[in-house]
Amino acid sequence: MKSSDPFVAVENIYTPRQRYVLLVASLIGLAALMVFGLAQYLTAFLAAGILFVVFRPWWLALVHQRRWNRQVVVVGILLVTVVVLVIPFYALTSLLLDRLIAFAQNPDRLLEVIHKLEKATGFQLTEQLNVRQLLLQGAAKVTGWLPTLASSALNFLVIVGLMLFTMYYMFMQETFFLLGLHRYLPFRNETLQELGESLKNNVNANVLGQVLVSVVQGVLTGATLLIFGVPDAVFWGVVAFFAAFLPVLGTPLVWGPAALYQFSQGNKGQAIGILLVGFILIMNIDNVLRIVLAKRMGNIHPLITLVGIVLGVEIFGIIGLVVGPLLVSYFMVLMEVFRRENRQHMKLVVNSPPEHKPVTPTPEKTE
């Protein structure tokens, strides 16, 4: 029986190979279009994935082992996220942005300190115009890193809402989500395990461990500046908290200029005290904590962290402190997977028996 559809009998102009290539290209194009459309909200989905990894041990312990109600556990996780992470982060970054913008718009205090430092040292550090330009550029840069706070409160609420809703469905549909990753990601199970382990190590080292290190260093820096009479010690302690995410540089970016400030004011004893506490206590605590936490929470090389932070903050903003090192680690893992699988393929080619071509009989010569 013939079909009534007139398009059934029409011959397709593409070969199966061409249809396959076009299908893959269509999928990539649609995915790129979706990412482009959601670019300003991408941090919400990235943050949801990171927090899913952070809270998953709690989820496994409470839901899978103790058989607690899924809905209750998810609501509890979301409340902890809002109370412990969202509200303090908003308060700290708002304080940081407001003060940086105030410094950029009114650089007179900083210029006065620089002039005093020039008189005390005898060196011409910079021109007034350069200081104003540097302050304005610094404020604009930090504002670009924190787009959710630099824009409207509605945008911030939308991003937080998307993050919480994404977390809710990732936990409530955990099995479907994880099976989907195994089904649609183009990697073997061994590679997926390596990527998952790399994600876990990065989150542990750059979220849990790094936040703990930053809190300790921020508190110590703020307390040191308060003891030695530096103005706005609480504000500079908040700045030290964010600066501590940068390996190698870190809190010296805060207590170093604070010591110079006290020196410019003629308080040489207080300046020496800040330097001693900074070099002996704050930096050594940083080194000890990083070594201990690196072994316990994820062995991430400092160079990967440094390169990843520079890359991630430039692309993703503040969430790039975690996403950047993760991208670099994933690149390293995939390079290792490529090396291993390429070597296995070469071994198979070398060890495979040669193909025997059929021998065609040659005709006999007739005398």
UniProtKB/TrEMBL annotation:
<feature type="transmembrane region" description="Helical">
    <location>
        <begin position="272"/>
        <end position="293"/>
    </location>
</feature>
<feature type="transmembrane region" description="Helical">
    <location>
        <begin position="207"/>
        <end position="228"/>
    </location>
</feature>
<feature type="transmembrane region" description="Helical">
    <location>
        <begin position="234"/>
        <end position="260"/>
    </location>
</feature>
<feature type="transmembrane region" description="Helical">
    <location>
        <begin position="305"/>
        <end position="338"/>
    </location>
</feature>
<feature type="transmembrane region" description="Helical">
    <location>
        <begin position="20"/>
        <end position="39"/>
    </location>
</feature>
<keyword id="KW-1133">Transmembrane helix</keyword>
<protein>
    <submittedName>
        <fullName>PurR-regulated permease PerM</fullName>
    </submittedName>
</protein>
<keyword id="KW-0812">Transmembrane</keyword>
<feature type="transmembrane region" description="Helical">
    <location>
        <begin position="72"/>
        <end position="91"/>
    </location>
</feature>
<keyword id="KW-0472">Membrane</keyword>
<feature type="transmembrane region" description="Helical">
    <location>
        <begin position="153"/>
        <end position="171"/>
    </location>
</feature>
<dbReference type="InterPro" id="IPR002549">
    <property type="entry name" value="AI-2E-like"/>
</dbReference>
<comment type="similarity">
    <text>Belongs to the autoinducer-2 exporter (AI-2E) (TC 2.A.86) family.</text>
</comment>
<dbReference type="Pfam" id="PF01594">
    <property type="entry name" value="AI-2E_transport"/>
</dbReference>
